User: Fold these one by one.
Assistant:
Number 1:
Amino acid sequence: MLEIQKNFVYAASEKPLVLGVFEDAEKATIDPKIDPEIATLIKEKQLKFEIGKVNKVFTFGKIKNQIVYLIGLGKKAEYSYEKLEESLRDVNYKLGSELHILVGSFSEGLCEEETAKRIIQTVSAYNYKFDECLSEKINNDLSLKLISSHDLSAVALEAFQISAAIDNTRDLINKPYNYLSAADLADYAVKLAKSLDDPKLRIRVYGKAEIAELGMNAFLGVNKGSSAEPKLIHIVYENSSKPAVAIVGKGLMYDTGGYSIKTQMNNMKDDMSGAATVLGVFELAVKRQLPINLHVVICATDNRINGEALLPDDVLTAMNKKTIEVVSTDAEGRLTLADAVCFAQKQRAAEVIDLATLTGAVCVALGEYTVGLFGNDQETVDQMLAAGKAVSEEIWQLPINDYIRKQVRGSKVADLTNSTGKNMGASSGAAFIEAFIDKPTKWMHLDIAGTAFHTSPFYKEFYGATGLTVKTLYQYLKDRPL
């Protein structure tokens, strides 16, 4: 758990002091009582300042801080916000329960306010833990005191709220299915809305009978094999009279693949990452009082097998009356999203953005740290790419062309087919959802299948959920033209 102290003025303390130092530095300016000794250690190459290196120096009473941590910033000529974040990956509770950070030492050549924001977010991300299922809990309490000549109150609050929303998102994704069903997710959404205590928001949760009345038979088709009731979660935050934007999250609480059963289904609890992400973004939008008219839509269910389960060759009729041939019951997420985006448009959303762990194909194409982005309006696509770049989350635009559209519409027995096989998998999944978007609705689809959950983290982050794209989508909504 991370706490940010509100006083940014330096005061003598016994707590560890943290500052950044470049590789080519000849000294570190801390206190005249200790600076010469530090300079000697640097000259003798007993301290290393390659990116991310943590040097622990005891002060032996020369100054009040008992320990100084000198963090390597790498080469000064190559320094950037991305390098700043890389340098902080080992700064967490293991260095002490309270750390005092000299922000200016990390902000050379950068904006100090943005540096402070990134320090909070990065330390929080790497201080994360999920121990709900452990008998012995992890004590990762950490208090950060940022020392600066600037008033960092506003940026510190925003950074802390972003970090808290990401942590909540990661917690949801990391929960196993027996801890978090569709009903549990709906309860969480209701409690979240209540805790935000804002008269401008309202929430409604639809049960199975109500979902059937809405004609959401693609969504219900996925749920046929489950004993757990599906939930349609709809949250509205009206803080603007402008046309609404809807964020739609794929809410597959667990995916076995149905009768097109997966050969390996460990960690398929993460198939609701889109739903968790849009709830995190909603939390931020309300806390930050963004001037938007926002709808959150989640079709939550699991995809399991019993005698009633969906079969390959079945034909479903979606909310907008389009028919779908089920080629694979493991291409189930797009079935729920088809009805979800239809529902969002029924709420008069002028723009619909869906987030989904949709395809393994996007992992093959882009790996585990790049989100695939599709859309029908290049201006908004460019704005989303810019938002990702602004917060250092990598997003790559992928195509939907007429050939791919024709394959999705190539069923001989229905309007659409829910799978085109291995070829063009990410693009055909996006093309399927696109078929349920009516003109002139602007639409974007973010395939987060590779980025949502990491079993072998490359950048030292905590095993499991990442919370990636919460920052991007928040930045996008924050920068969205009024």
Note: The first strand starts at residue 2 and ends at 4.
Number 2:
Amino acid sequence: MTAKYYTQFILTDTHYRGGNEFSGVVELSQPMEGDSETRDIEAALARNFDLNRSAVRLVSWSRLH
């Protein structure tokens, strides 16, 4: 069962210094079990931008129903 999340995030990679705050929808293969699992969202976003997970900082998120 997949789960979609609306996210706001900042990219800290040097290529995004001028405009580094973004928002968008991320779809995970399974719902997160708690707030502590935001690493899954950061990892999915990092893959989309071809960056390391450490280059993504999640500002806020909410599950879409």
Note: The radius of gyration is 11 Å.
Number 3:
Amino acid sequence: MKITKEQQQKMIEDIQIFFSEERDEDLSEFAAERFLDFVKASLAPHFYNAAIADVKHVAAQQYASMEDEILTLERPIK
């Protein structure tokens, strides 16, 4: 997963804020980065695959619609 340094830094800050607000824990930047690495390696693929399945479904619907439109262009043969 490719993310910019700015995106990664924002995610690390968000993790630190979450742990502070939700768990009343102060997480070091290193610990937050390790947690982010875990999420990227273990959890992100599940979300990515779900998004791919959603895109596949939408694309199939659009293809079916397009196919119907194309079929309306056929001319009858006498």
Note: The helical segments are 5-23, 29-71.
Number 4:
Amino acid sequence: MKVIICGAGQVGFNIARQLARERNDVIVIDQSTDLVRRVNELLDVQGMVGHASHPDMLEAADASSADMIIAVTHTDEVNMIACQVAHSLFEVPTKIARVRNQNYLQAMWANLFARDNLPIDVTISPEIEVARAISRRLDVPGASDMMPFADDRVRVISVLTDNSCPIVDTPLRQLTELFSGLSIRVLGILRDQLILTPSGDEFINAGDEVYFAADADHVRRAMAAFGHEEREARRVIVVGGGNIGFYLAELLESEHPSVNVKIIESSRERAEVAADRLGQAIVLNGDALDREILREANIEATETFVAVTNDDQVNVLACLLAKRHGCQRTIALVNNMSYSQLVVSLGVDVVVSPRATTVSTILQHVRRGRIIKVHSVHDGRAEIIEGEALETSPLVGMALRESQIPRGIIVGALLRKNEVIIPRGDTVIEAGDRVIVFAAANMVTKVEQIFSVRSDYF
């Protein structure tokens, strides 16, 4: 597949890296000579310096033979025009654009990106995606991440384990014996920055980050098995009244009306806008690093503190200060993921990366075959993929233990009609099943083949 990526920033770089890993033909366009040099030096792609929306640049990138254009520059208008030019002049089949300004995304302008207007197939708002990612984490207290699959009938959850975890040093195959009737399957383990796709003989160690799939109705019991029995937050403080903080507050008001939400915003103008547009949330104008503001927000009685300003240091320091004042759980937005592990070791419970969230959303539309949903794990080390099993899939019609699934791929759950199935060795996948798999990065292409119409995969 030939893909043109407009923008060599964090999102563009990481998408290019993952697509190049899979031997796609990738061209990256950016105005910055330094960013293009970095792309050319570190990735097996072609970097070009120039304006991504200019016809001559797209012509030089041979856009007429491209399968897809992904526009993720820092300017919405450049992204939109790049897709328009790619469509009108070069007939590029699939066009994806990152759009930050919420004015473009309002429901009243829903036809803006229709084929006869601005022909963009997928628009992605990082702010909205990040707010949704944080809201999902609030749904499952104790989880470092939560991803809904199969119409939210299946949830894939990651948890950090320590010495107090009840199942540390327990072989995975014994989990069903210890917790009878619990519908859960361990998919992957992040240990020492390496992703493991474990067998039943693997043990969970203290310090692991464990990914497991569970029937949505079994999540509370599954979390208890990992030593997490926290209650859902009833009081939440959000630091930052920008797009992310505002949209998160809106989500909480609409989906969790019983939750008491307070926003701390340093800009008086933004604080007034948020106060006018939100229905129930209380907006405080002040500095989240000011102890008096935290006391005014009643930090001692707050279960969850979420810092989503555009300053990583403010987010981390505010979370640590909230912990010191008695807040039970903190979530920090961190753009620079190079020190995310350090942030967690300092005491911040959950780190959310806008880059990783955006990349996951884009990959969902890049994957080939009958792919429904994708979530990228730890900077592309693995992916959780939901796909539809077709009649020609090599998985269909035989027990999983006989299907010769390559090492590095684990089938975590199925949705058959309206029934969630956590598979065992004798489970037989049927055509039409929605299948959730965990795949190491080097196995993603094979997963795409599993969900394609080819029958000569194995």
Note: The chain has 14 helices and 22 strands.
